[in-house]
């Protein structure tokens, strides 16, 4: 059986005067086993929040059909934020060629792809001004349909497309939302535009392997069957690992819990390679929003090797001992050889690079960084994937969803809700004048007043 990923945890037991010990891990064996049983039982019953565990076994036929339709447009704009966009960003970065939108259409053979996330007018206007709206598909993603940033972008895009092509505007829109309720479900029914369901039991940050992430991926030529197959293989392998020291998801969950208890309240995710840069972005939401509640959680820190060796590594090595660092390396990268020889005397000191592969340099840097951190007494998890392709990205995504959920259960919190986010949403609704939220205006004024209590103007 070929590997989907490998995890090395020997350096996770480094840690100055607060090391995590192997016997500490063994003490959690029964607890993590019970957490795993709970996760699978509630997943099998399709309990709210747990449905993502079933996504590797979904029927993809409707999503692929929609993907074929989307592929006929010149451009696709996904309107969403958080879990309705980060997964798409991650898949596109990992699995499409670099500078994808700049490729000639004959090379690209698929639509250009854009995201409308942050409600920044400069970005929004610049994007729509550069597109032929009659040849652009808009994918609007919100489970509730009332996510403020998404709703604002949607209203604006809908109006602009209607001005361009009139009553046929609905032909350019795909709605991805709750199957039964919400504003967007009503809109899809009333206009007859195409729609896909977000399973009711799947939350936004766990939704990348649902229609939320897969519709655009399919349209852009990413093989979503292989993506989901990788997740399925990961699930099937994890379920067979019934011993703590043989199950990497159990092991990483326990290690993260114990380092959090030891005061390491930051989880650094540092993949090596530009194609995994947005995996760290996706991980940050998954980890932070799932685990940051009731006084628990560790702060996710995005880093990118080798770039952040030159910006963050000094802090990681010699700064506070408050971080657990995960490095992701890739075994097989595209071959890019440096010159065998450069016939310029002034460059003789660089001959150690002659004939070397650029990808090998990146992996050497990953190993060197890990070694430097271990020498400095800082704990490191070293994870390897065979290559960056659909199967292995699907497996990696599912693996970290699984680890995150288990850490939540070990912390005795719900990894599938986000009460802190909901409070912010209520304040936004109140200030934007949404009916039913008037009572929160005074609260916002009171608490924001504390922010302005000591104002210095220069």
Please render the helix and strand layout as text.
Layout: E1 6-8, H1 22-26, H2 29-44, H3 61-70, E2 75-79, H4 86-95, H5 105-108, E3 112-116, H6 121-129, E4 136-141, H7 148-165, E5 173-177, H8 183-191, E6 194-197, H9 211-219, H10 224-240, H11 248-261, E7 266-271, H12 277-291, E8 299-302, H13 313-318, E9 323-330, H14 358-375, E10 380-385, H15 390-410, H16 419-432, H17 441-451
Parallel strand pairs: 2-3, 2-4, 4-5, 5-6, 7-8, 7-9, 9-10
Antiparallel strand pairs: 1-10
Helix pairs in contact: 2-15, 3-9, 4-9, 4-12, 10-15, 11-15, 12-15
Number of domains: 3
Number of distinct beta strands: 10
> Mind summarizing the main beta sheet?
5 strands, mixed
Global Rg: 24 Å
Q: What portion of residues belong to β-strands?
A: 5-15%
CATH class of the largest domain: Alpha Beta
Shape: globular
Classify the secondary structure makeup into a structural class.
alpha/beta
Q: Point out poorly predicted stretches.
A: none
- CATH H-level superfamily of the largest domain: Glucose-6-phosphate isomerase like protein, domain 1
Per CATH, the architecture of the largest domain is 3-Layer(aba) Sandwich
Q: Which whole number gives the mean pLDDT?
A: 94
- Helix % is 40-55%
Which fold name corresponds to the CATH topology of the largest domain? Rossmann fold
Distance between the termini: 66 Å
Number of helices: 17
Order of helices and strands: EHHHEHHEHEHEHEHHHEHEHEHEHHH
InterPro entries: G6P_Isomerase, Phosphoglucose_isomerase_CS, SIS_dom_sf, SIS_PGI_1, SIS_PGI_2
Keywords: Cytoplasm, Gluconeogenesis, Glycolysis, Isomerase
Pathway: Carbohydrate degradation; glycolysis; D-glyceraldehyde 3-phosphate and glycerone phosphate from D-glucose: step 2/4; Carbohydrate biosynthesis; gluconeogenesis
EC number: 5.3.1.9
């Amino acid at each position: 059986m070929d590997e989907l990923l490998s995890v090395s945890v020997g350096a996770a037991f480094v840690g100055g005067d607060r090391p995590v010990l192997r016997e500490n891990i063994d003490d959690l064996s029964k607890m993590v086993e019970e957490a795993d049983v709970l996760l699978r039982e509630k997943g099998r019953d399709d309990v709210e929040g747990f449905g993502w565990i079933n996504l590797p076994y979904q029927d993809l036929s409707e999503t692929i059909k929609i993907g074929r339709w989307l592929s006929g447009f010149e451009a696709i704009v996904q309107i969403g934020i958080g879990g309705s966009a980060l997964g798409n960003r991650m898949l596109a970065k990992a699995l499409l060629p670099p500078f994808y939108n700049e490729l000639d259409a004959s090379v690209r053979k698929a639509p250009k792809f854009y995201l409308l996330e942050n409600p920044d007018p400069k970005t929004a206007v610049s994007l729509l001004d550069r597109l032929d709206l009659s040849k652009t598909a808009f994918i609007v993603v919100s489970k509730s349909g009332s996510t403020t940033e998404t709703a604002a972008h949607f209203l604006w895009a809908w109006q602009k497309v209607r001005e361009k092509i009139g009553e046929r505007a609905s032909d350019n829109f795909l709605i991805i939302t709750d199957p039964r309720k919400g504003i967007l479900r009503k809109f899809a029914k009333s206009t007859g535009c195409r729609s896909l369901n977000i399973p009711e039991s799947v939350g936004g940050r766990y939704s990348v392997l649902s229609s939320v992430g897969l519709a655009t991926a399919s349209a852009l030529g990413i093989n979503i069957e292989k993506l989901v197959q990788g997740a399925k293989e990961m699930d099937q392998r994890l379920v067979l690992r019934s011993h703590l020291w043989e199950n990497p998801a159990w092991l990483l969950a326990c290690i993260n819990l114990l380092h959090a208890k030891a005061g390491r309240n930051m989880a650094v995710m540092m993949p090596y390679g530009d194609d995994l840069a947005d995996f760290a972005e996706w991980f940050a939401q998954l980890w932070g929003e799932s685990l940051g509640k009731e006084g628990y959680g560790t702060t996710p820190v995005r880093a990118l090797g080798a770039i952040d060796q030159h910006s963050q590594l000094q802090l990681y090595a010699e700064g506070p001992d408050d971080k657990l660092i995960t490095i992701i390396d890739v075994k097989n990268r595209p071959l890019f050889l440096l010159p065998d020889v450069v016939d310029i005397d002034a460059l003789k000191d660089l001959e150690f690079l002659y004939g070397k592969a650029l990808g090998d340099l990146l992996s050497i840097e990953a190993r060197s960084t890990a070694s430097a951190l271990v020498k400095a007494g800082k704990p490191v998890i070293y994870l390897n994937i065979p290559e960056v392709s659909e199967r292995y990205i699907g497996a990696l995504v599912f693996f970290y969803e699984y680890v995150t959920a288990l850490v939540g259960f070990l912390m005795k919190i719900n990894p599938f809700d986000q009460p802190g986010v909901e409070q912010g949403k209520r304040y936004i609704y109140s200030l934007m004048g949404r009916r039913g939220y008037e009572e929160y205006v005074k609260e916002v004024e009171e608490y924001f007043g504390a922010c302005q209590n000591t104002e210095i103007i220069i």
